[in-house]
TrEMBL record:
GO CC term (a single one): cytoplasm
Record-linked InterPro entries: AB_hydrolase_1 (IPR000073), AB_hydrolase_fold (IPR029058), Maspardin (IPR026151)
Keyword flag Cell inner membrane: no
One Pfam family named in its UniProt record: Abhydrolase_1
Record organism: Castanea mollissima
Protein name per UniProt: Maspardin
Amino acid sequence: MKGPFSAPGDYIYFKSQVPLHKIPIGTKQWRYYDFGPKVVSPLICIPGTAGTADVYYKQIMSLSMKGYRVISVDIPRVWNHHEWIQAFEKFLDAIDVHHIHLYGTSLGGFLAQLFAQHRPRRVRSLILSNSFLDTRSFSAAMPWAPVVSWTPSFLLKRYVLTGIRDGPHEPFIADSVDFVVSQVETLSREDLASRLTLTVDAASVGPLLLSDSFITIMDTNDYCAIPQQLKDQLGERYPEARRAYLKTGGDFPFLSRPDEVNLHLQLHLRRVGVEARPDLIQGISRGGSGASPSEENDKGEDPDDPPKDDGEATKDPSTDSQLHPAPESSESHSLDDQLLSNARVDGLMPLHGS
């Protein structure tokens, strides 16, 4: 990264409009954003080792303006995968959300699959980006894993950053790398040690009760830190999943190719039955909920019903705020125009290498 990092203008605007939440749940501290109509079943974004809740700010801004609810979380300080599953379930209980759609990138995609395996009634669909099925290859590449919890912060940061491909990059990819590097600098030694421990803790994803038709695999075809062999294994596990290919984007396409990623996320949510509520956007005001009492969740609903608009409402309605378009954003294209110009979706097609 050349020169000092300067936060993008749209990120500064996002921070001025969308509140960051920090809540203790048990012994874990959760840091997250929650934005959009509370009556809509949420898309929850889980980052990779180097990410934070902030890396999905472009998804929060775009999808919430279209009437979707987006929650973006930091991976909490947990030290094994069983602890992750229990902590995430407690988090969902605390914010009064039951049925969810998970978007996970890299380690976040792995954690999303584990949660879907062990808590199948809660997960209605998955979007997996540059992800994997087990941790064996990472464990083999990190022989010093047993001492990671005692390793100094600067060494942990150096190790995480060496996994991010160094330039030269095209400008949008270079900007995405700079942003993620700036986020890594905000992480504590314990946060980094926890995430690296999750990466090497012996675990693999078992069979999911979730049908492949409710899974989208969204990968970049240029390069990323996850070896192609691991991405191929993921595709073989879910042969009937919908494929979304991004020609370029690097490790962080949600930042470098946000229009394409947001389009694929929107197409996925539509396909699995999530009904956006753009009619509630203008009714959302700072400090007030966009949901009326009649739109609150029916707690008697069968959790195994097919995916639909589940209608959760959080205990904290102040998380809803009206988000006006950022000065530099452009939302004038129709979904069909974006699809033709930005995206290629191949249904029921075998996953191939770059």
